[in-house]
From TrEMBL:
GN (gene name): purQ
Compartment(s): Cytoplasm
Keyword Ion transport: no
Gene Ontology MF: a single term: ATP binding
The UniProt record lists the keyword Cytoplasm: yes
Organism: Halobellus rubicundus
Protein name (database record): Phosphoribosylformylglycinamidine synthase subunit PurQ
Task performed by this protein: Part of the phosphoribosylformylglycinamidine synthase complex involved in the purines biosynthetic pathway. Catalyzes the ATP-dependent conversion of formylglycinamide ribonucleotide (FGAR) and glutamine to yield formylglycinamidine ribonucleotide (FGAM) and glutamate. The FGAM synthase complex is composed of three subunits. PurQ produces an ammonia molecule by converting glutamine to glutamate. PurL transfers the ammonia molecule to FGAR to form FGAM in an ATP-dependent manner.
Gene Ontology biological process terms in this record: 'de novo' IMP biosynthetic process
Length: 225
């Protein structure tokens, strides 16, 4: 499988994603957004970073790059697409996934390990875990507060499209364990189809054992293996 890691001006987690995928035995290559998506890719990652300096809204400008038409088309054809952090913001801004990531409740950039509870283990991104598992993965964002209308949130819950919620180390979903004030402690969701997903925490930063951040993120990226 070859995964395209799409690089925009200001992306900065593209190399990390390639390294993490390589560690899992997955071929990955960085693709500059102006070059368009190669037609034969088997997966796409929209990586983290500060595309276009987070001007306007994080992800808003990258979402308007023509490559996002290619990403949408390949997603509609069934190719797995994952947006991580800034990539998650781009995913929502592109309507690959519903809702929006807005300024953290703290109004500060937060970089810290968090606990996540696996809500639905029957997706490619969570099949390596069991429902209810608690994993530890870092966050690093200023605009990670997931917001969505009440009715669309209810739809996400009803359709089992919430992948992970922020929790404490015992798996309790509490306000104290919600690092950014996200609705329902949501940390990651799927699109209309399970093979499209966005999440604010960084699984690629918890994949390489040498980084000392644990390897709990491997399960997410193993969707591409
Ligand atoms: N690590 C990231 O991708 C950061 C995302 C975005 N720049 C933010 O601060 O919210």
């Amino acid at each position: 499988m070859t995964v395209a890691v799409v690089q925009f001006g200001g992306s900065n987690c593209d190399r990390d994603a390639v390294r993490a995928l390589s560690h899992l035995g997955v071929d990955a290559e960085r693709v500059w957004h102006e070059d368009g998506l190669p037609s034969d890719v088997d997966g796409v990652i929209l990586p983290g970073g500060f595309s276009y300096g987070d001007y306007l809204r994080a992800g808003a400008m990258a979402a308007r790059s023509p490559i996002m038409d290619d990403v949408r088309a390949t997603a509609e054809a069934g190719t797995p697409v994952l947006g991580v952090c800034n990539g998650a913001q781009i995913g929502c801004e592109s309507a690959l996934t519903p809702g929006a990531f807005t300024t953290n409740a703290s109004a500060r950039f937060q970089c810290e390990p968090v606990h996540l509870r696996v809500e639905n283990a029957e997706t490619p991104w969570t099949a390596a875990y069991d429902e209810g598992d608690v994993i530890e993965v870092p966050i690093a964002h200023g605009e990670g507060r997931f917001e969505i209308s009440e009715s669309k949130y209810d739809d996400l819950v009803a359709d089992d499209r919430i992948l992970f919620r922020y929790c404490d180390s015992a798996g309790n979903i509490t306000d104290n364990a919600n690092p950014n004030g996200s609705r329902g402690n949501v940390a990651g969701i799927t699109g209309e189809s399970d093979h499209v997903a966005v999440l604010m925490p960084h699984p690629e930063r918890a994949t390489l054992p040498d980084l000392g951040r644990g390897t709990d993120g491997q399960g997410v990226l193993s969707a591409f293996a």
